[in-house]
Design goal:
Layout (H helix, E strand, L loop, with lengths): L1 H9 L5 E10 L7 E3 L13 E5 L2 E10 L7 E5 L8 E3 L4 E2 H4 L4 E2 L2 E2 L6 E9 L7 E4 L9 E2 L1 E6 L2 E11 L5 E5 L14 E2 L9 E5 L10 E9 L8 E4 L12 E2 L1 E2 L5 E8 L1 E7 L8 E2 L10 E4 L5 E5 L2 E2 L14 E4 L2 E7 L2 E5 L5 E6 L2 E4 L6 E7 L2 E7 L1
Parallel strand pairs: 1-8, 10-17, 18-26
Antiparallel strand pairs: 1-4, 2-5, 3-4, 5-7, 6-9, 10-14, 11-12, 11-15, 13-14, 15-16, 18-22, 19-20, 19-23, 21-22, 23-25, 24-27, 28-29, 29-32, 30-31, 30-33, 33-34
Length: 386
Amino acid sequence: MVLIALFATATLSFADQTVALRVQVPAATNVVYATGPFNSWSTYATPMTKVQDSPKIFEAEITVPDNVGGDYQYKFLAGPSWDYQQSNPSGDFTYGTDGWDGAVVNSFAQYLTPVNIQVNVKVPKTTHYCYITGNFVNWEEPKKEMTFVDEVADGKNYTYTVLNFDPSVLEFKFASGPKWKYEQTQSANFSYSGNGGANNEVSVVCTGFKDIYELGNITVNIISYPSGTDSIYLVGNFFGPDWNINEAIPAVKNYDGTFTAVIYNVADVEYKCWKRKDWAYEECLADGSSLPENRKATYRDTPTVNITVERWNLPTGIESVKFDHPISITDNKIMVSGVQSLVNVYNMNGQVIQSFKGKGDFTSRVLPSGFYILQVDNSRAKVIVD
């Protein structure tokens, strides 16, 4: 009965699936775009890849509901606008009739011959970098860096070549960095046809950006931290959007007892501190709760940051870890036999209260009743002194 109930619940929601959509087209076809509910009927969001020449077949991966119905519709274009839509047949294909690989288009209204389009822009002199996005990349976050040409009295010139696109439908905009927060202040998009493009080249002027992207080194000083801290690491989005504990930046301990870490060649970052290169040792607030948000720094505004770590999280709930060393607790003392390299005794605030390095047996000093984290060589466990 439980299994039946779980199955009934599971069937109420459906995951998406990725399928390969294929179409056979005339030999004169140079490019193919797929359109349908999977991309909100966009004419340029799903360019297809040629996978066969004779007959000519194009393919693209699309995401559709796992429970897609037989009446699911889609169609194809020989260019990134409705001017190039299929004409024979003119109606939509359906999953129930054609599946994902049974579509055949005998002709299109027009056939695009893609060209390379040179986009030139003049930006304010305060700009350090210039990026471009547009319908040629489905308006993705600005990632295409433009090439610096020269600096003139009233600005800086950059250029970028859009490959294999239709000039008549090209739209684009600029950013001073690789995120939307750096996009241009002008609300309207630029376009090839609307900005005097000719001979596959268009030149425009961008008057400003919402923020200026500027790279440099951010220095983080950890001026206060829990006693017993022997190492600190910074983990964040320094090397990409994903946080990787294996790419943690180690902080160096200074003569005055503070720690310093330098994040090189960044504009703005989010990060936190860890006591070890281990997700379990994340910093937290004094009461043990998580930081309400990531730490943030911007090179242009705060190239040097002084922070305080109030407390470390330590692994808990691992009482069942099997040690290779006998452990006993007598008279409020923890005793360990057969130590190979080290012993650390932590309180629940993450502070080292006693440490031993060497081989042999270890006996702690008399400890107040309570919970402790015991590290012996490479093993850890939570122990209770009572």
